[in-house]
Amino acid sequence: MGGIRKTTLAQLIYNDSVMELHFDFKVWVCVTNDFDIFNVTKTIAKKVITSQRFDNDDLKRDFTSLTFDNEDLDFLQVKLKEALKGRKLLLVLDDIWIENYSL
């Protein structure tokens, strides 16, 4: 469903200052045609950890010391879950294309 201004609407909501009051973190990820769950998760994690609102120095140190190149997805998801525990995240996954709608 291209061209019906979904991204424009999402941007208006994402950039609304009221969202700052409702969410601890806001992350916008553009997903490419060759979708890779590890890269998407890595992008989300990096944006959360580098946010000025992130205040867990130990976890921040853990993340910045990782190369992410040879870490597994499960480990990354566990660390992201730990980082988000008790916090609210507004996550926008933009540019997702699903050819087979019966999935």
From TrEMBL:
<dbReference type="GO" id="GO:0043531">
    <property type="term" value="F:ADP binding"/>
</dbReference>
<keyword id="KW-0611">Plant defense</keyword>
<dbReference type="InterPro" id="IPR027417">
    <property type="entry name" value="P-loop_NTPase"/>
</dbReference>
<feature type="domain" description="NB-ARC">
    <location>
        <begin position="1"/>
        <end position="99"/>
    </location>
</feature>
<dbReference type="GO" id="GO:0006952">
    <property type="term" value="P:defense response"/>
</dbReference>
<protein>
    <submittedName>
        <fullName>Disease resistance RPP13-like protein 1</fullName>
    </submittedName>
</protein>
<dbReference type="InterPro" id="IPR002182">
    <property type="entry name" value="NB-ARC"/>
</dbReference>
<dbReference type="Pfam" id="PF00931">
    <property type="entry name" value="NB-ARC"/>
</dbReference>
